[in-house]
Amino acid sequence: MGIENFFIQALIDDGDISKVLKRKVTSDMLQQTVEKKAFQVTLDHFRDYGKAPDLLTLSIKAGFQPEDGKPREPLEFFIDEMFQRQLYNEVAKGQAGAVEALRSRDPKEARRILAATVSDTAQIGGDPDVMWRETYSPEAVDERLARYEKIKIMGGLDGIPTPWDRLNNVTFGWHEKEFILVVGRPGTGKTWILLHLAKAAWEAGKKVLFLTFEMAETVIGRRFDSLVIKLPYHNLRAGELGAFVEKRYKEEMEKLKGKGDMTIMSGGWASSPLQVEGVISTVKPDIIFIDGVYLMQDGMKTKEPWQRVQNVADQLKQMAMRIDIPVVGSAQLNRNVNIKKLRGGLESVGGSDRLVQNADIVMGLFRNDRLIEEKELLMRLMKVREDEMASLVLNWDFEKVDFTFKRDYKDYFSAKKEEVAKKSATPIDETAVDF
Question: Can you give the residue range of the structural domain that contains 387?
Fold first, then answer.
């Protein structure tokens, strides 16, 4: 009786694919060709339909045939057995390497191999959600010192960069396990901001997964073209680029053919964080963007919208911790925001308080009539766990394709305040000033 065959049977019988995703079981752990293919078909089926396939489907698509003797142990038992086998193989491999080094009279190399084996196998079979270590163990100290040196060399930017140096100075880029939230009223530019952030990550050589719940992937792709090639979006959408720009557009698109590492998917089929995690296990991105997290389902058929969003928020943060990459999503600001005064707090984020509670960074987008006229966008950091708050005014000019950093908002606020003060001898009421 093969353990891999029983593992596949138990997986189909149990039907809860999250158990293998949470434990980070991969197809590389399976050695038998048919069972390996059956496992991948199971993951693909879950990605596409949100459920495990039946044995007949596996028989047709992977040639899988269950062995006699239905497994009586739970799925968790076979997952543990798979990890036990992996642990045995890795330890045996390290031992063989160390013995070979000793035969060559190289004890330092033998020690290095043994130390690497201990490090590499430390998390095999463990719960990825539970990690611990002694604060001042040699390994922990060396890791933090190495991280410091890396940060020093990088000028403080040790995460995935954003398009704006001013924002990088505050966040130091996006880091593993972080959940970043971009919030704004409808039409303020949340999707565009996500695309700018995705473009910066992509141009930095990172593999990007962009999941949209609000638009077709073709629309997102066209917007991305506009940013990458620097094309006025209205003209691109209307087919009115003009002869010269159109020629450049076509030439650049030909150059981009076959350039990978940017995957755009619509969210009609991947409606829950768990289903998204199934996609992540296949695409293996370095960062994921989710346009419209408030439209996601929690996989529990929750009827109350606020409860559904709360569950999704919890699941997304847990997913970010589990998959060890940044998760950047967008959500709505409610009507409590004072658009005219460009003011709104975390309590103005719609859907559920749990969204901002789970988020490591919350970036609010604001535009009033003056900013629209000046072709500007205010990005206010409303929550930052690790550093200072900041407010940035960005150029927001689609005709010139100019979305660069323009100034700190506080500088403009101070200047406007002084201007009003000069015109009046009475004390300034800041809430009455139209910024």
Answer: 165-430
pTM of the model: 0.68
**Cα angle: 315, vertex 320, 321; to 5 degrees:** 100
CA pair distance 13, 270, nearest whole angstrom: 22
Between strands 376-384 and 391-395, the pairing is antiparallel
Quick one: which of 47, 403, 56, 411 has its CA closest to 211?
47
pLDDT in tens, 161-201: 999 999 998 888 999 899 999 999 998 999 999 999 999 99
Collapsed DSSP state (helix, strand, coil) of residue 332 = strand
User: CB–CB of 377/397 below 8 Å?
Assistant: no
Radius of gyration (C-alpha) of the chain in whole angstroms: 26
Whether 120 and 179 map to the same domain: the answer is no
The whole-angstrom separation of Cα 288 and Cα 276 is: 10
Give the number of C-alpha atoms closer than 13 A to the C-alpha of residue 2, restricted to the C-beta side.
Answer: 15
100 and 180 in a single domain? The answer is no
Is the residue at 135 inside a domain?
no
- Tokens 């924002």 belong to residue: 167
| Rounded Cα distance, 85 and 66, in Å | 21
CB atoms within 10 A of CB 225: 17
Q: At 363, phi and psi to the nearest 5?
A: -115, 120
Could you tell me how far CA 358 lies from the centroid of its own chain? Answer: 14
CA pair distance 195, 200, nearest whole angstrom: 9
Distance CA 293, CA 329 (A): 6
Partner residues linked to 362 by β-bridges: 181, 383
How far apart are alpha carbons 400 and 418 in whole angstroms? 31
Structure tokens at 354: 């749990």
Are residues 195 and 262 both part of a single domain?
Answer: yes
Judgement on whether residues 13 and 93 belong to the same structural domain of the protein: yes
Residue 138 placed within a domain: no
pLDDT digit string (tens) for 282-307? 888 999 999 999 888 887 777 788 88
Alpha-carbon span 374 to 385, nearest angstrom: 32
H or E, element range at 94 = helix 75-103
